[in-house]
Amino acid sequence: MRTVGIDDLEPGMILARDLLQSGRLLLPKGSVITNSNITFFQRQGIGKITVYSSPKSEPDEETLKKSFGYVRDYFMFVNHDHPAMIKMFDIAVYRTAIKLMEGWTLPTYEEQTVSELDDMRDLFFRDEGKVEDVVDAEIKIASFPDIFFKVKKVVDNPKASAQEIAAVVGLDVGISTQLLKLVNSPLYGFPSEVNSLVRAVTLVGSRELCTLALGLSTISYFKDIPPELIDMRTFWMHSLTCGVFSKIIAEKVKGVIPEVMFTAGLLHDVGKLIIFKKMPCSSIQAMLSARENFIPLVEAEDMTLGFNHTQVAKDMLRKWNFPTELTEIISNHHYPHTEEYKLQATILQVADNLANAIGISDGGMYVLPGIEDGAWELLGIDAESLTGIVEDYDLQIEELFQAFFC
């Protein structure tokens, strides 16, 4: 998907989004653009159009073979007969082949060693401490944003009006600005601009908007992760991708709130950030082990640390008094054993795998963790629908990332 100026628009291009003007539909998504369309757009003063990106040609056999060999390693840990995994593999191979045709070079990773972190020390060695010690050490030295607790208070009040909710959220200019960007993004696709928090609450829903605000306030907390440990842009890109996939999938499953799933996807890996801060050397060892042994990072964490990021997230979110639903979904997304929120945890598990699959063509580092036996069937969707889900994601992600992190 790409945005082209009206002067660069050519007949035969395919419209990637509904083309709206003042809330009026001019041309629906999927339409093949003609010369008449271009003339009409010019008369209407339309400056840019979003169209599907299409390669000049389909990948040749040699490129597909090269892509297949590269992508295969990322799927070593999963059930190769699983219908969703088969489809994810096909998607990853094709996307990687397209990138190769565009001149992308398969990455090679320089090994990072613990010696590079001479000025950092782990809180404790394996078997000397527990998950609770890691979380407590973080909580003692840093306060959580005050806006979080104010938003949560209004979330817990079923009688709060749209004006009251907007007033509380509006106390933090950064979060309220991000919320309006989010509501005006392709994630929602409202026909006209939403220019006030009160209107946003009305359109999206009070609890839904507050859930999004909780997610944004949590992101603002993690600003001091050492760059030697992780590229935060890459981390949040994966997290946002997982959030978008979670929301798109949730919209296809009855009984699930898409905004809750988006926020859960956005925050699904926050436990990693606490581990990076408190156990930097062990974090590097876990990452190296995951890459060298072709195992999911969560498995490498268990072997290296004696616990993993989902356990840290669970303890941390509980101590921050996060909503129970979000806490349970996030802390069970690798192993959706939770009874009450099993469906939601499964959606997040599928979204996480899909985010990892499409991340392969951007130089992803870790193998897919896989989907728990019997979990996929709970969703009631066909594996072929993953193609459309990825297409919807492609239409949204660039503008969303700009709204969140630029």
TrEMBL record:
Q: Coiled coil where?
A: none
Entry's InterPro entries?
HD/PDEase_dom, HDIG_dom, HDOD, RNase_Y/CdgJ
Instruction: Report domain HDOD positions.
Output: 141-336
The record's PROSITE patterns line, in alphabetical order, gives: HDOD (PS51833)
Organism for this UniProt entry: Desulfovibrio gilichinskyi
What name goes with this protein?
HDIG domain-containing protein
What CDD domains has UniProt attached to this entry? HDc
